Amino acid sequence: MKKTVLILTLVLAAGLVFAFHGEGKGEKRFEGKRHNDMQKEMMMEHMMEALELSDAQKDKVETLTFEHKKQMIEVRAELETLLLEKKEAMKDNDFAAAKKLNAKIFDKKEEIANARLDLKDDIMNELTPEQQEKAKDLHKKMGKRKMMKEHHAGKDGEKGEGKRGMKRGMRGENRDCDNCQTEE
User: 0.85 cut: is pTM over it?
Assistant: First the structure.
């Protein structure tokens, strides 16, 4: 009797540990996504300030962005459902069904990519020619920073140095990198 109670207690304790451990992972993943969303919103606000948008332009951009986000929630939900169905088909060794689902999955991914481009196009159409030029310059600058970050992320084979490496590189402290040209 004592052995049974002890075993049940251990099983219950292990179950609780795994349950709480799983919850934390989901929350961290959600927190990371929310952090990325906040970064994107801050970048959008910075862009709107730098482009000196009128109130009407700001309202239009916010409306376009809001509608895009709503659309993406629906499309991503459909994509997640397709991914689950593919996983189930793979589990059942139904490769023909998995291939059909692959086609649908890639269609959804293409839809997401095209919707992103449509949003950028719609936003650019709201800008004056001068603002469009300024936006192109800002995108070029952001692209250079992103390239620097990616370039220094894998420096010396170390993983995870990306952000720190980028910051050092942007301050001109990565002079030892043969591929970098620092400006001072």
Answer: no
**Who contacts 105 (Cβ-Cβ below 8 Å, separation ≥6)?**
79, 82, 83, 86
Angle in degrees, CA 97, 99, 100, rounded to 5? 65
For the chain, give every domain's residue range. 57-126, 134-169
Q: For the segment 113-164, what is each residue's pLDDT rounded down to a tens digit?
A: 999 999 999 999 999 999 889 888 887 887 766 666 665 665 444 444 444 4
